[in-house]
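re: ur question from the group chat, yeah i did fold both. here u go
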Amino acid sequence: MRMRPSQKSGAALLRTAAILSLVAFAAGCQSRQADAPRTTGSIGATQTLEVSNLSHDQALRAVQAWGARYSNDEKDKVAALNYAAALRAAGQPSQAVAVLRKAIIFHPKDRQVLAAFGKALAENGEFQEALATVQRAQHRDNPDWRLLATEGGILDSVGQNEQARQAYRQALVLAPGEPQILNNLGMSYTLTGELDEAEKVLRQAVANPSASAKVRQNLALVLGLQGNFREAEAVAAQDLSPEEAKANIAYLRAMLAQKDTWKDIKQAG
């Protein structure tokens, strides 16, 4: 369902958040070496830093730890990937691009490095090179759902929403119910103002126990945009410490108050 005209200005405010959620999607994986820095950072099932789960302070500590290891050996793939991920989480995508551009020299055919490079390029606004890089990393005879989801995020970022959704649907065939794919699909619908569909998909995502806090935050944004403020705040605060919940709710309110006030959006809803 397309959103009502009164919702359009508010939905436009979510475009940046939606794109960031899409291109920040984790696509690579590698094994963690025994001497990896004991830092900070959210190390997920793939044993790499999960950018979307890092707080700003964690990201800064991870930059220091992984940067030191990278400085010792720029050919170290694990160090390069995690240093770049930490830089992205700290809001330094151009530096992450530089690190990974060098990593490509040492690992020109490595899917993990190519995927990470594509993500960093997208976050830096270099969408065409990002798309080409991610597609180069993909094996069409044995596709990787993470790469498909990342490709979809880049396509959404340049306005090719239907092509993006085709990529997400293909990814869901390979990884049914995967919350990170559903997150991207939900934010794709947010970009085009199809908020009912976005809410439906994001609810499916957060129902999975492995869904990240970022996915719940995105659902809260969509609920808030539709005027469901009480539920939006409850979702934003779910499973968080009081301090983290307060910060998430403040972020939610700030996003929705940039142009339309909470009162205005409530009346529009």
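okk and heres the other one u asked abt
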Amino acid sequence: MTGSDATIAATSAGAKASPRRRERWLEFKKPIPTWELILLGLIVWVLFFGIWKLATAVGWAPPFLLPAPDAVAMTLYELFASRGFLMDVLVSVYRIIVSFAAACLIAVPLGILMGSFSRIEALFNPLVSAWRYLPAPSFIPLLLMWFGTDDTSKLALLFIGVVWFLMTLVMDHTKAVKTEFIQTALTLGANRWQVLRTVIVPAVMPNVVITMRQMLAAAWTYLVIAEIMAATDGIGAMMMRAKRFIHADEIMAGIVMIGVLGLLFDYLFRVLERILFSYQEET
């Protein structure tokens, strides 16, 4: 064995003998087991409800202003069992779905076109940028004058609160598509429509679905504001009725219901994302 061979062998033996680095509890972007994911998620909810229960037990606030978690749960049950709350929930879900679908039908195609063609961006972006900074609730007086107190004004408010932000985010994701993909398709003889349909849209759609899931949360935040507008049904209307009589338990039950529905919709979007773009997980 030569000197160099002996050195290599000694180095290899030392590398094998060196102790393995101890795994830390916090590792950058490292996946964790499913059981640990569920456990950590449960822990944070146990802490939340535990602090809430403690606050009511020691009397940090009067019970009529801060009801206990079990009181809110009982109120939620009563709302569904004897006060027709299910219809309010269905009306709110209907308003979210219709308004969000309308916003997506306009924002997604136009955002992709703006991100793909500079002239379309130059034409629309000044208008979109200006509207993005206008608070949607400021349009409530106009919407009431234009559409009255029926569902149209509420759907319009939810639409305005989502469409401009969604359009801008879709445009930015489309701009991030690598130019090399587009140039390669053009070099192979594809026309603009083919490049848009077979290169840009498939490349950007995973990020578009993620953006839609994020903006759906914004739509839920506008729901109560929309249903304040002289509404007689919906979760927000129920909460406003409860506010008149200082029924904090009913208001908190409405908040809990919105949170549960938001989590459900978010989960459905995650499932849709896995089904449509399963190749990303494989990659």
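fwiw on the second one: The chain is about 80% helix and 0% strand. The mean pLDDT is 87. idk if thats what u expected
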